[in-house]
Automatic annotation (TrEMBL):
It is a single-pass type II membrane protein. Gene3D superfamilies: Spore Coat Polysaccharide Biosynthesis Protein SpsA, Chain A. Residues 39-67 are annotated as: Disordered. It is found in: Golgi apparatus membrane. One of its GO terms (molecular function) is alpha-1,6-mannosyltransferase activity. Pfam families: Anp1. Keywords: Golgi apparatus, Membrane, Signal-anchor, Transmembrane, Transmembrane helix. The chain crosses the membrane at residues 12-30. One of its GO terms (biological process) is cell wall mannoprotein biosynthetic process. InterPro entries: Mannan_Polymerase_Subunit, Nucleotide-diphossugar_trans. GO terms for cellular component: mannan polymerase complex. This is Alpha-1,6 mannosyltransferase subunit.
Amino acid sequence: MPTQRQFRRTSPITYVFAITLFIGLVYLIFSGDDTSPLPTKQVMGRQGTATSDRSPPSLPFRKSNSKGPIVPPPVVHYRMNNATQSTDPLKNRETVLILTPLAKFYQEYWENLLKLSYPHDLISLGFIIPKGKDGNAATAALQAQVAKTQAGPQKKRFASITILRQDTESPVSQVETERHKMENQKARRAAMAKARNSLLFTTLGPSTSWVLWLDADIIETPPDLIQDLARHDKPIIVPNCFQRHFDKDLGTWEVRPYDYNNWVDSEVAQEMGSKMANYDILLEGYAEMPTYRTLMAKLNDESQSKDMVMQLDGVGGTALLVKADVHRDGAMFPPFAFYHLIETEGFAKMAARLGWKSWGLPNYFVYHYDE
């Protein structure tokens, strides 16, 4: 008669358990090589929304009216190598996150956004708005357009829209003459940097391929803006930002350079920085601080191709396309003096320290609102 120990050793349960473990081990080994697309649909509800408010931030979420227990979010595996950032984002169905710090709402901005030819179901929008009377007005105007668009034709609807409200008011008046005064720049741009970082860290999802920073007062861009910038395959790339304005003397509409933050550094600027205190910043476009940098805004040449690219040391944020991996690598917008640079120019410097280069298109234009 077999002993109890011998019985345990020859029990069928032991064989079943061993076979189960073996099958599980084989599954884990071979499933790691799966190259299927990012499984974003696994966390989507029947209406194309996230099933939980704790799902990835770039997916839309609507609160349920059910009074039952809160359903925990699903466990989703993201294979980040599958989040491509290619020269043909349309063919590869790459997702784009358009982020806009918004202190004042311009209808022309929204209308231009709707004209973008990139499929809207691949675009998520993110906005951050300061508190206060002006911020309340901007929020109300934005929400009205969001409601209209998202209830309209399916082709026009965006994949998701996130609106954040800051807990502080803008430290500087949003009137153009005030916000561009030199003495207001450090406080203004530090606040802008904090807003950008809050917006970025809240909305960047694991399936995001590209981040397009688009200022709220950019009212005219080519419809193929995203495709045109992405096909250059640069980690950071900016178009040239100009402004249409009415010349009273000539009686005609003219164009002039607007964004002077896209530049190539100079020895003069570096020398100035070496003599500054650690907390001081260099600013561009002010006669009181002549840096003699090479400004992309001054290099446009209509006889040259709009695809001509140049390497930059500083970038502006009026229209700025960034591969999502650059932000994931840690490049953000310093609200402090970073090598005597701040906000978007500080971002370019921080990205360069991480090995990412910035590029510009001097003959490819977007246009700023004329106040």
